[in-house]
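Retro notes (design track)

What went well: tokenization of the new backbones is finally stable.
What didn't: we kept losing track of which sequence belonged to which structure.
Fix going forward: every design gets posted as structure first, then sequence, in one message. First example under the new rule, 127 residues:
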């Protein structure tokens, strides 16, 4: 089972940028579809983005389209989430996860479809 570790979170002002990283060990990240999820206090875990293994097809929740970009570097066994023009409503703990599938399913935004999870990294957007 893939072991995942997120990094890159922090405090940023509205309009700022952060890049999250998800490093995989004990497995190959590129064998799996992988996603980013977030959970704000008192809210359910929300799918942010997914990237397929085979062709790199990407998917985004509407609220981050045009602002966030998911990518992967197979040589480094690492996935990224570039977040630009951050808003206070982006504040949450961000998690990366891999699924037991190579392509992002149509319901990729449902967290229960994913099997391996990192420990999360806090992103706070505030002035």
């Amino acid at each position: 089972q893939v072991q995942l570790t997120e990094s890159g979170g922090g405090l940023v002002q509205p309009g700022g940028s952060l890049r999250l990283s998800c490093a995989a060990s004990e497995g190959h990240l590129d064998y799996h579809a992988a996603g980013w999820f977030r959970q704000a206090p008192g809210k359910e875990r929300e799918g942010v983005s997914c990237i397929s293994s085979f062709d790199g097809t990407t998917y985004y929740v509407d609220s981050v389209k045009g602002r966030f970009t998911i990518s992967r570097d197979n040589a480094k066994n690492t996935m990224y989430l570039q977040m630009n023009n951050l808003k206070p409503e982006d504040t949450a703990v961000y998690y990366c996860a891999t699924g037991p599938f190579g392509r992002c399913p149509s319901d990729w935004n449902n967290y229960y479809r994913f099997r391996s999870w990192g420990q999360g990294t806090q992103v706070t957007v505030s002035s």
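Added context from the reviewer: The first strand starts at residue 3 and ends at 7.
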